[in-house]
Structure formats: structure tokens, C-alpha cells
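Provenance and format

Records in this collection were gathered into a single text stream. Each protein contributes a sequence line and a C-alpha cell line. The two records reproduced below are adjacent in the stream.
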Amino acid sequence: MKRKPTNVNNIKKADLSLLDFLKQSNTVPGKIVFFENIEGFDTSGYFYLQGIALFLIEKGHSTIEVNTTTYELEKGCIFVAFPGQIIHVIQTSDDIKPLCIACSIDTMNDLMSQVKDSLQLFQAAKQAPIQQRDGEDFDQIKKSFRHLQEKIKVTKNNPYHYQIIKSLVISIVFECMDFVKQKNYEPQGSNRKKALFNAFLQKVEEEHREHHSVKHYADELFVTPKYLSTVVEEMSGKGAKQWIDEYIALDAKVLLQSSQKDIQEISNELNFIDVGFFGKFFKRMTGMTPKAFREKKE
């Protein structure tokens, strides 16, 4: 096994340009990349993901950390990584062989606009980003990946190249996402309430650093704080404030672990009134002070 050195001095930007040098990649330039060989790719340190990536592990094993959560990727594993996540490859086996479809953020938004209930699927996949496929299931999804790879090659001169590849990517996403139903993530409630819940989660993900109050999100969504809290609790079993605080706490953990910013800087970045208030919040959410959390990770 190759142990990857940890380097938190810099978080590398991971977008499609990072994959340009890979010899065995097939691309729709600036939009979609398919690759199956990471030889020569420097996976040390931390990567700030600026796109979305779907991995199928055909062979070998890898241990990765995503926003402080560790995942073991083995043969037959399907794993999805999302924009804004910080990825750290802890170790990989010498025989690792992933099949990967990576899309830019613009392409991801385009794909989502074509899929009904895409926000709901997006959130469900974040809750359960890994699944295991064996036997015929694994062979079938591998064929789909390979079919996409071939189509990228043979349709590159077709004027509808992107549309063809986009439709195949959507098909693969649906193939991989049947685990969403298996996980029983489907929120129960009216379509209006589901739409409000999904819109709330999207806004919290985008704005939690600047805005910590339920009232802000209620105002943005043109409902009262009480109604928003009631709907979010009904849809997810967690209150609106809990969702906001959990996003902030996760962001704080990632910044403490993967950057060398001091605690004051992190407090400012997360828009706390002072470092003392940030410290109390973090201890309430994690049971540890920011300093203790950082020292434990080191």
C-alpha cells in the first residue's frame, strides 16, 4: 500500500483542468471527463472539489477522507463526490483502478435541470455517497461506464456530441441512484413542502457562512420562520436551526483540519461575532474546543 503524505499547507483546486494531462482520459472539453488511470497523478494533500465526480472501483482499494469523514473504497464500490467538498486521499493500493466520470459545475447544473426532483436526489446522495455493487449489478454498471467512454470517442465530431454524452451521463446517474430508494430517504409530505425543504437545504449550503438564522432563510423563501421550521422538521426529523448549525460545524471542522488559518481567522470566515462565541458554538456541536479538535487531528 502507498501511504500518501498529508500536507495541509495548501488546498489544491480540483476542477477539470487538473485532469488535462492524463493520457487515458476522454473528454467533452470543459464539461465532462472520463478517466480510468491515475498513474502520475499527485494525490497528496487536500483538494477542494470544483465539480462533481462519480467513481466506480474496478480493482484495488483506496481510503479517502471527505469533509472529515473517512470512506473505504473497494472493488464494486460506487462513490460520488460533490462540489465544495474537501478530499484527502489517505492511501491507495498499487493496483487501484477506478472508472471515473467528472463534470464541471456548469455541466452539473445543466444535468440537474434535466432531471425531475434533482435537488432531492442530490441531497439523498450526499447522505449516502457510497454503495456496493456485486455480481451482475457491478458488471452492468461497468458496461454503462465503458459505453460512455466509447461514445465520447466516436461521437467527438458529431455536432450533437455534448447532448449525446449528457443523455448517457444522466442515464448512468439514474442507474447508480436506485440506492436512494433503498435508503428510504424520500421525504414524506406534499410537493409544496418537499420543494420548500429542498430550496431551504440549497440556500443553507450556499449561504451558511454568512447567515446563521432561520429568519434569514424564511425571508428568502417568503415564509414565516415558524412555518419553515415546522416543514423542515416534518420533512427531515431535524429542525431548521439544526440543519444550519450542522452545516456551519462541518465547515468549521474542515477548515480546522485542512487549513493553517488560525482560529480567529476561521471564526471571522464563518461570520461569528467573536472567537469566544465561535468556541462556545463549536464545543456545543462537537464536545470539543476548536483548539482541541485541531490538536487531536494532528
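Adjacent record:
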Amino acid sequence: MSEFEAVTLTDPSSSLTATVVPMAGMIVTSLRDGEHEFLGQRRGLDAYITAGKTMGVPILYPWANRLSASKYGINGAVVTLTPGTGGVRTDEHGVPIHGVLTGYPGWLISDRSDNTLTAVLDYGGRPRLLASFPFPHVLTQRVTLADRTLTVETTVMPTTAASVPLCFGYHPYVQLPGIPRAEWILTTPPMRHRPTDNWGLPTGAHDDWQASSEPMGSTLYDDGFDQVPEGSVFAIAGGERRVEVAFLKGYPAAQLFAPPNDDVIAIEPMAAPTDALRSGNYRFAVAGKPETTRFSITAT
């Protein structure tokens, strides 16, 4: 077992609890009602800390999903990422994946109650982090559990005149306990599908994705999307259970990931599409104006 302290949040209006581990990157490891767990446990917390194997609800920061190469340019400068240093991890093809905050221990708790937890990371005060993302800012994450809903709010506040690219996301693995994935009904909103190549990178093509509610059956997903309307709700339902992931604010892109070896699906809110840090397809947080994003997971 990991020695990292876990914080349990309790819903004031239900028996739902959530577990957050601040010193392991502010990862949410559990959302449960008694014995019923709604987050995918995958390989567990230790594998996340030691090997970057995602589970629960990890943050992907400062970029979500993959980059097509280990360099990106901005304002005429080129940033070179060095795999294995500064938190940079690569996938099986050697391209950077999921940012640099996997299991990062530098978060400081700034506020805590029975059902809320807020932590702050001064990115500008960490040379190790600035080496791969040279944009000083303060990153704040607030997690709230109320009305059977876990809400994650993320604020990026620039601390210099330099604007901060917003390319991050989260990787929530959700599940319906006791119900095989083949029996789940997956509900998705209208959006734009962005096909990927065999490295999981966008091909540049796109097609319309109609709103739908379909049985998952044997379908596997590793699909990217953009043009996700603000306020969109994704859901899985089966038996008497339902889990909703709502893209409440600031997440116009998404990834759906249903792996072959586990009865989970990741419904991933993203501030920008895959490879945005290289393509330039993102928005900024500008000096003096914090940008806040928000998504939620409701389990019933």
C-alpha cells in the first residue's frame, strides 16, 4: 500500500464518499457508496505513483493525451522535452503523454472541510516543472462532493506577463459496479470526431458525431473529439445505476477510452484537443485574468 495520506470527503446529503490523495498529484482514487465503487481502480495507486499507470481521476497537466513530438514552439521559442526528466513520460511509441504532474507531490492544501478539498501548486516556483512548460502560474484545484456529485474545479492564474496555454485535462475512469460493460448504455452529446492514427495522434480528418445512446457491447474506444458544447453530459447506465460526466465549463474537447482488458470507460474532459501544444489549437490564460474550468461526476 502507498504511504501517501488519503483525504476522504463525505457527501452531506447521501452516503457517497470520495477519496483524494493530495501528495500523489491530487488524484481522486475513489467515488463509492458503501461497497459500490464508481471509479476504475485499474492497477491501483502505487502503479500510478511509480509508473504513471492511470486510475481513478488523475490530472493530465500541462497537456492531455499525446504530443506528436518532443518539441513545441511558442512565441518564436522552442521548448524541448526530455523523456525521463522533469516528469516527462512517453508512451510505447516514444512520444510524450499526459503531461508532467503524474503523482506529483508538490501540492499544498489551502482549504479543507468535510466535503471539500482545495490545493495549490505554484508552478512558477518549480524549476523542474518550468523546464518543460516555461509559463509561471499558480494552479489551484478544488474538489467538492455534494448531492451525489463530485465536482472538480481547476484555476490557472498567470504570475507574470506571459500568457499560459490551456491544454490540460483529466482522465476519469468510470464504471457501473456489478454490471458488465457490454450491458452499459453509453450516452454522448453531439460533437466532432477526430480520427487518430495507430499512434493515437490526430490525422487531421474529422467527421460529425451525432448525439446517441447505444449499448457498449464489445465496442472499444480510443477516440478524440472537439467542438464539445459547454454543459454537455456524457453518461453510462445499466440496471439501476447511472454515472454522468458533465463538461460544465472550459472543456471543448474530449477523449473516450474503453480498453480491452477492463470493464471501465474513461470520459476525459480536455481544455484543448490532443497535440494542441504543438498545433497551437488552444486558448490562453492571460495575465491578471485567472481561467477556471469545471467538470463533475454524478453517481446514482
